[in-house]
Amino acid sequence: MRLLITGARGQLALQLRSIIEKGRSEIGEIDPIYKEAVIKYTSHDELDITDLTSVLRFVDEYRPDIIINCAAYTNVDKCESDIGTAFKVNAIGPRNLAMAAQRVGAKLLHVSTDYVFNGVGNVPFREYDIPEPINVYGKTKLLGEQYVREFCNRYFIVRTAWLYGKYGRNFVYTILKAAKEKGYLEVVNDQKGNPTNAEDLAHHILKLVLTEEYGIYHCTGNGECSWYDFACKIVEYAGIDCTVVPITSDKIDRPAKRPFYSSLDNMMLRCTIGDKMRNWKDALKAFIDDLKNTEQEG
């Protein structure tokens, strides 16, 4: 089995690599087939997914059985001003990979986002709900989804949300650093979603791509909260003496609108390979406990 994983320097690709090398994640073992797999991890300097000719040539030569696209332009606010780059990476890139996958008969798993929804409502969005993004990031990610569906027959589209992990920048690291330095934080309390541990997401991706259960999936931590609730738990689990104060979104001036409610329901997971995504509080506590242990060992 040959795998191609793009976005190799991002937190999800690095999490996938870590789990593959260990042969298991925190929530269970992965299929032993990965021990014998030939895997190529590519970043932008090795494979520019926005260049169709380069993608077709690369995939034609490597002949992967599975492509996992972790590459994305995820700076939500910067997308508003750098529309061209966001469009190329989040829409054209997946299109190119879909066309290449179709040519060689490969499966394609493409990672998408809760921001394809408009944030109106109070019931978690399911896979059959109609997307209606309200910012450039969400619009380009939705177009990427549409291109994957149009140009590739054997696809998995996996929408996730509020992702954090051991590698790279994320909300958990930002809050930990700010809480230690300032001792006082203001965090918005009127946006709700699902914090997702990259370990859990990576585990399900590695399980899903070995199947033929094609389609659109939601894959997030179970349970929902606001960014304020999330920050409070981060500070609590880390044992940091910090005051966290709730504020409303209108107190923060940002270029991109955020959906007020973007919780996802992992219905497709439950109906196919099973939903082992941990409750967001349990997954977060495990993550922070692991950080503490690593710091003590260091």
Structural write-up:
- There is one protein chain.
- This protein is an alpha/beta fold.
- It has one domain (2-169, 196-223, 262-278): NAD(P)-binding Rossmann-like Domain (Rossmann fold, 3-Layer(aba) Sandwich).
- Helices cover 43% and strands 18% of the residues.
- The chain has eleven helices and 14 strands.
- Strands 4-1-5-6-7-12 form a six-stranded parallel sheet, sandwiched between helices.
- Strand 2 (24-25) and strand 3 form a beta hairpin.
- Helix 5 (83-104) runs parallel beside helix 6, helix 7 (171-182) packs across helix 9 and helix 9 (227-238) packs parallel to helix 11 (280-297).
- The chain is globular.
- The mean pLDDT is 97.
Radius of gyration: 19 Å
In the CATH hierarchy, what is the architecture at level 2? Answer: 3-Layer(aba) Sandwich
Give the SSE string: EHEEHEHEHHEHEEHEEEHEEHEHH
Main sheet properties: 6 strands, parallel
Task: Identify the overall geometry.
Answer: globular
CATH first level: Alpha Beta
Count structural domains. 1
What portion of the residues fall into strands of 2 or more residues?
15-25%
Low-pLDDT stretches are none
Put simply, the count of helices is 11
- Which class best fits the helix and strand makeup? alpha/beta
* Major sheet: arrangement of strands: 4-1-5-6-7-12
CATH topology: Rossmann fold
Helix content: 40-55%
The span between the termini is 37 Å
Determine the mean pLDDT: 97
**Fourth-tier CATH superfamily name:** NAD(P)-binding Rossmann-like Domain
Q: How many β-strands, per DSSP?
A: 14
